[in-house]
Amino acid sequence: MNRSTRQAGIVLIAVGVLLLAGKFGVFHSAAANLWPLFLLLPGLFFHYLRFGMGVHAGVLVPGGILVTYAAMFFVCNLIGWQAMAWLWPGFVFGPAVGLFEAYFFDPGKPRGLLVASGVLAAVSALLFGIVLVASGGVYLIAAVLIAAGLFMIASRPRR
């Protein structure tokens, strides 16, 4: 048996095993949890274009958006889609991340990118705060304020 026939046989066996695994539902559960990779991989590719190939920093805008959204969707896959009830302000935060990356890694440091990123980040933070308070997070905020106050009282003054 020659080498090409052996390789073709291995390929046929691999395809058959993959078909059987698919029929038994092996890939369904993996695809149900790993589909955000279809956003993450292009986002990482945009970052590679900038840092590996030296393309203009503008490619980081869609890269930052896609990576941020992929992270949100991975969180939802891990803890459940009810998390989107408090994660939705991340859709405003994604463009803020992309614009800030473009500003930070552009040698010219265009001020407009920083301003736009700051505005979007502030709106996103405000929306996250509203969601936190509306979902009973006022208890968390109160606990943090009490802990900060206790820390300030208990800490020694610096000389």
Which structural traits does this protein have?
about 160 residues, mainly alpha, 2 domains, 7 helices, about 80% helix, about 0% strand, extended
What this model shows, in words?
- It is built from seven helices and no strands.
- Helix 3 (37-51) runs antiparallel to helix 4, helix 4 (60-79) packs antiparallel against helix 6 (90-105) and helix 6 (90-105) crosses helix 7 (111-154).
- The chain folds into two domains: 1-26; 35-154, no CATH class.
- The chain has 159 residues and is mostly helical.
- The N and C termini lie far apart (85 Å).
- The mean pLDDT is 89.
DSSP summary, beta strand count = 0
Structural class: mainly alpha
Q: Number of folding domains? A: 2
Average of per-residue pLDDT values = 89
Helix content: over 70%
Listing every helix as H and every strand as E from the N terminus to the C terminus, the arrangement reads: HHHHHHH
- The helix tally amounts to 7
- Stretches where pLDDT is under 50 for at least 5 consecutive residues are none
Rg over C-alpha atoms, rounded to the nearest angstrom: 24 Å
What's the end-to-end separation, in Å? Answer: 85 Å
| Major sheet characteristics | none
Range of strand content = under 5%
- Structural shape: extended
